[in-house]
Design goal:
Layout: E1 2-18, E2 21-35, E3 38-44, H1 58-67, H2 73-79, H3 84-98, E4 117-118, E5 121-123, H4 128-140, E6 145-149, H5 155-168, E7 175-179, H6 189-196, E8 203-205, H7 213-222, E9 227-229, H8 239-249, E10 253-256, H9 258-261, H10 263-276, E11 280-283, H11 290-303, E12 325-328, E13 331-334
């Protein structure tokens, strides 16, 4: 078996705002396996400034992985514990190599084009008019769940946006999730949550920065509506540490990004613990290309979680790879009649 790795830069169609700044490009890496005329493709979806494996030795570890590919998937996964995006790339590449085609990793009614995955409509940060336009577009495209990134513009303006949605759509018609990406100051978080209560939100992701576990535990205990942990899961590698974190904070939900938490295996550890402690969960992509998004979507479908998933990021880039993934009427579909075009 031969293994190689390749860097690829994804270009955003328009600058995309988060509470950590504006993104114009997204770096990603691919592991390509070749054996007996077949090819396996895995994406290592690192996000600089956020991923636990954003380290100076990242490419060195990719090179080591390809040089030691003979160790096999399970042994490599264990050896790559502190490199969750490479763990995921390895899992994906081996699954791809073993599949009938490189991109149908988990055959199902989803990959047959018969069933779809309900997803949320992501509204990016920006000025009020831009965000309002995105909201109107999502509603026009029959999304029943909208996710707004908040925490970057004036909080009062964000409250006005939420008021705009609620003045036209009841919670039964449109579910609203908000993602603060850790933007709320510790001493203001509970007050801001109280202000958000009137809009009957489904949940808020990561209201305060990670690693403030005492404060997050207090917030989760006293919050007027559910809190979902997102960044808080990043860098928690051992099963015992994962369990300790959930026992301490007791969140209402956790959000699983396979590229950030060790791929399918790492995510399934979190799911097992969430089920044990009666914590809800859903899956979200982490700005991967269509290659990674495809793998996440196929795996997610098999989990049969009826909540809207965060898998609507395929249209963000000008130079994404052509794929059979389509967003229609608030759902992600796999159209088997469309062809892949994966060239690096």
């Amino acid at each position: 078996m031969k293994a190689t790795y390749h860097k690829y830069i994804l270009d955003f169609k328009r600058p995309s705002g988060t509470s950590r700044g504006v993104l114009t490009q997204k770096e990603t890496w691919f592991i390509i396996l070749e054996e007996n005329g077949k090819r396996g493709i895995g994406e290592c979806g690192i996000l600089r400034g956020l991923s636990a494996d954003d380290r100076p030795d990242y490419e060195e570890k990719l090179n080591w992985t390809c040089s030691n590919i003979h160790l096999g998937e399970n042994q490599l996964w264990d050896a790559l514990l502190e490199f969750p995006s490479i763990q995921f790339g390895v899992e994906m590449a081996f699954r791809s190599l073993a599949s009938a085609t490189p991109f149908e990793l988990f055959p199902s009614e989803f990959t047959a084009g018969k069933k779809a995955i309900v997803i949320n409509g992501l509204v990016w940060m920006g000025d009020t008019e831009f965000m309002k336009q995105q909201i109107e577009d999502k509603i026009a495209n029959n999304f029943t769940c909208i996710k707004l990134k908040i925490g970057a513009i004036d909080f009062d303006k964000e409250l006005q946006l939420l008021s705009f949605i609620r003045s036209h759509f009841t919670p039964e018609k449109i579910e609203i999730r908000v993602d603060a990406n850790g933007a709320f100051p510790l001493n203001e978080a509970l007050c801001k949550l109280s202000q958000l209560t009137e809009f009957k939100l489904h949940s808020i992701e990561q209201p305060i920065q990670k690693n403030n576990t005492d404060s997050m535990a207090v917030l989760c205990k006293n919050t007027p509506f559910p809190i979902a942990l997102d960044e808080e899961l990043i860098g928690v590698f051992l099963y015992e540490e994962k369990e300790q974190l959930l026992q301490k904070i007791k969140p209402q939900y956790i959000i699983l990004k396979p590229s950030f938490v060790g791929g399918f295996k790492g995510s399934e550890e979190w799911i097992k613990l969430a089920n044990k402690y009666n914590i809800g969960w859903w899956v979200t992509s982490a700005l991967e290309s269509n290659v990674g998004l495809n793998a996440i979507a196929q795996w997610t479908y098999l989990l049969q979680n009826s909540m809207p998933q965060g898998l609507g990021t395929g249209g963000l880039y000008t130079n994404n790879f052509d794929a059979p993934l389509e967003v229609r009427n608030g759902k992600l579909w796999y159209n088997p009649e469309l062809q892949w075009n994966f060239t690096l």
